[in-house]
Amino acid sequence: MSDKRLTQSEIESHLKAAANLLRGDIDAGDYKQYIFPLLFYKRICDVYDEEIAEALEESDGDEEYAEKLYEHRFVVRPENHWNEVRKASTNVGDKLNKALRGIEFDNKENLTGIFGDAKWTNKDRLTDETLKELIERFSMMKLDNTHAGQDELGNAYEFLIKYFADDSGHTAAEFYTNRTVIELMTTLLDIEPGESIYDPTCGTGGMLMVTAAHLKKQGKEYRNLKLYGQEINIITSAVARMNMYLHGIEDFKIAQGDTLSKPAFKEKDKLRTFNVVLANPPYSIKQWDRASFEKDPYKRNIYGVPPQGCADYAFFAHILKSMDKETGRCAILFPHGVLFRDFEKGMRESIIKEDKIECVIGLGANLFYNSPMEACIIICRAKKTPKCKNKILFINAVNEVRREQAQSFLTEANIERIERVYKAFVDEDGFSKVVNISDLRDCSLSIPLYVRKNEFMIAEEHTEYVVANQYQKWLNQTNELYENLEQLIAQLEETEVEE
Predict the structure, then answer these.
(1) What is the CATH number for 139?
(2) Structural domain for 60, as ranges
(3) pLDDT tens digits, 239-271
(4) Total-model pTM
């Protein structure tokens, strides 16, 4: 193992090689259960050793001071150390599992459950030989602060997120949200140091981390952001917590559980509120507790109750209730269906009347893994500026996208154009339109009804409306088809797992 500082490409190369050791034995969608805990475990142990060395130097070799009195970030007893697990040649999974649980136990306040629930002792999935190879691969890297800084590890973490998303096919959508889209959402909300940021369906914590990275890139203080997230999947929520630590974030809380039925962040009998809410809720889920939402004690049902087959507006209502009454604003990534579906018309009308929706942005296709479906961003504010009151800005940004090497993303120029029009809150021919709430057509927020390309701008209003409606019908049918296909695939996969 080299004593020099690891480069970004060297860390990524090692992590990719480690993941490749699992090919054939474990489904690509499950790599995260094993690679992230090992990365975090190695980091904890290497930083602990670094702290010991610094304490010995400070105390002229006083080992008692170094082991017991020195302020360690995390406690690592000798029997739980990486080097001890590395010695094992048989029952490696059992030795590793005991070490991980031991570290969690010794650091209850911060690390309980952080290593997830991977079946390390299942030799049918992970033989001793494979685990030894994995451990040796990680042992080739020294992951303390001297040899691997937070920026490099944070970037490597993002590399893994994307690598697993590329490799795991259909499961990628719930594991990885296009980072350039999150950058756009963060930019539009003008997040400031010290604010509280909340993601009710946080996945691996990507949206929360991008807010911190955004402030850091601007040269602003990012470490005093207060980051909160909730994630229903136990493994993914554990990965989100590791993400925070690897990026050097101190003030955060990631809760595991169902946001709709058991919201984690409360103040007495009300939902806790935040300065900013960023979210990419799971699209149109059918398996949710509609019955309890009908009797919701937090009054998220004031706009109505969504149908069992589609929980999008339940998340929408939760997010609106989670915004601070003075400074609160949110950016939500939704499927286009929320803008116009008939069975949610009543709820949509109630939300529109509250005058919290400030902007609706239509994004281009293929920005999400294995899904050509176009999405939209809805931006809301608890208190609009006088210029924006009783108005909604529609932005048609479907062409603001670049595609290279089979990947679609937003460039800085794309983001800057959207930001410029959003902050100016103005009409731009064929790109944006400010619409009075009273002028909305049948409570539809469908962007093509208000923003059309020049070829659709026909002088006669009747003809214009017919053309727009025909286009809208086609768009609705296309997006609904994609949603139905994705739901069908998910149901088939669940059936296969049960069998």
Answers:
(1) 1.20.1260.30
(2) 8-167
(3) 899 888 888 887 899 999 999 999 999 998 899
(4) 0.83
